[in-house]
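Regression test attached.
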Amino acid sequence: MHVTHLSLADFRSYARVEVPLDPGVTAFVGANGQGKTNLVEAVGYLATLGSHRVSSDAPLVRMGADRAVIRAAVTQGERSQLIELELNPGKANRARINRSSQVRPRDVLGIVRTVLFAPEDLALVKGDPGERRRFLDELITARSPRMAGVRSDYERVLKQRNTLLKSAAMARRHGGRSMDLSTLDVWDQHLGRVGAELLAQRLDLIATLQPLADKAYGDVAPGGGPVTLEYRSSVGAGVEPARTRDALYEQLIAALAEVRKQEIERGVTLVGPHRDDLLLGLRGMPAKGYASHGESWSYALALRLASYDLLRGEGNEPVLVLDDVFAELDARRRERLAELVAPGEQVLVTAAVDDDVPGVLAGRRYAVSAGEVERV
Ligand SMILES: Nc1ncnc2c1ncn2[C@@H]1O[C@H](COP(=O)(O)OP(=O)(O)OP(=O)(O)O)[C@@H](O)[C@H]1O
Ligand SMILES: [Mg+2]
């Protein structure tokens, strides 16, 4: 798929901007702070309903405005669709498809698919497990948009179970009447059911992604691998994750039973996909804590290129976004990466100076300056 038009109102630094887009490569070039990343961030938002830079919507709304609107015309094969998202921080966001009456924002997922690589992705390798869980879950949702529902069900079940545990912890501390724990059993089953579904998808994803990530790392940093992806489950140290959804359910239920006493003491859920991690290995060592800066950076890029490969292989080709990528690479790696991505259906690149964009990626260029986006 590709985006044929992007239109923003009160999004980040833009009061209004209209950007016609073509398939193939488009480069946004301009000095620091001029609004290049803001443009591609908006495209990414359409695909994930979130920003790759911030965890809440508030910073996405232009200072002084009270809501932002992202609109895009999207073409997939013969089909064109218009999508519109209105961001209302503190209130529910709104969405429309083809100017029809409102749909849930979640219904927009799957129309725009992106793989976005940005400097922030270094956190995939160096950051907390939450970064890697988000990486997995966003990719799961790109593969299968209905997983957005499973993810939000899981969040909801987790929240309610934690509330229950917290009140159990309080009751215990204050020597009150101990609570009826059969309610907790019911929430264990909910958590186990939804959690197993999420886990099954993550495990399947990792198995599919592993060879692609290893290959991509070899492309970005020849001879530097191998890389290995390994799921770290909270069900217990050294416990291999089960293979089927039913077995994963049983595993979760058993693990919950084991930690229940601790959970009631601490008032939080200690087992489940929200406590898991993806272990990134490089030449037999964990990348986190061992890999050099350049290696970590190549690793993060390899994970994104592998995601791109995976989504392309499964049909609907995503838009590839490379935010500020080329400046970090030496001339040889720059050319390699450019050759790798040049045939993509749509590639959006940002760079501070023209010379950072490799010649192979000659496409449309826009100059971005003080919120003006002009074709050059
Ligand atoms: N909510 C907002 N309201 C108004 N301005 C904003 C808002 N959020 C960010 N900005 C402004 O947008 C600019 C950053 O834009 P952006 O991140 O797109 O820059 P860039 O062109 O990618 O720069 P760099 O080359 O440094 O990455 C900053 O000057 C920032 O002050
Ligand atoms: Mg930027």
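Expected vs. actual: identical. The chain has a mean pLDDT of 94.
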